[in-house]
Amino acid sequence: MCRGLAPIQGRRIVSAMLPRGRVRPLAVRPTARVLCRRLAGRAIAGVHRRGKRVVIELAASAGRPREWLVIEPRMTGLMLVVDPPTTEHVRLVVSLAGRSPRQFLFWDRRGLGTIRLVDDRGLEAACGGAKLGPDGLVVEGDDLRRVLGSSRRAVKAALLDQRAVAGIGNIYAAEILFRVGIDPRARCRRLRQDDWQRIALETRRVLAEAVRLEGSSIGDETYRTADSRPGRAQLRHRVYGREGQPCRRCRTPIVRIVLAQRATFFCPACQQRVERRASRRPARCAAHAKQAKAPGSCGVGRRG
Ligand SMILES: [Zn+2]
Fold first, then answer.
1. If you measure from the C-alpha of residue 181 to the centroid of ligand 1, how many angstroms do you get, rounded to a whole number?
2. 170 CA from centroid of ligand 1 (Å)
């Protein structure tokens, strides 16, 4: 999304408006009128991402300090530099001076997204360390273990907690845990240090791949890139949206459950219930059988 918005960098905003339609109104701060007045005439100094938020940097001008337009797309929000899929769900239109693109838009079918214009302090409050943990593209196992290691929560629900790690959504949480081979219902406190290392590694890999493939366009194909093309990351989904279809690794049908109110997909054969792991491992691990080592002292046969 942010890469698609890069062409607006360095451009000047002529005007902004928040169309009022029949659709559910969006959460906007400050008021629509004040927001539009403060955007007009500003230069766009940069386009940034903080977790799952787009942050547009507005240069200081005419006595106004530097400000930040923070847009959180949530479930169905799109940032576009071309014509929107429908006009009724256009939430913000920002007209730009000069050459193409002539404008950028925020479009949101369900209207769960938010738009905020904040100063430096407001940005810290909205996207600082109290709200967002380390970014998923660079997160380390120790970051996750420090925050989640003693939690009783299911690991999949915990990975969606943006204060623990920023940038993982429902689709990628399922994909990360499939690649790690851990059941999404596993309690965080049952995971070991090397589990957190592998979760962090696969988080970085899965998110980097999704960024490279420009996101996942699934089901109703709501998600589009900024120039209104579908993403391609859905072609790499191994569990998400594949209920009843054979696991790509072992052919066991993929299962769908609801966990913490979110649809959750996993392979019951490839993804371990870590609670059972200690008693199952010695029988499966040749090194244990030979040397009669205590479970946990050997890294062999991690996937069983
Ligand atoms: Zn499988």
1. 9
2. 19
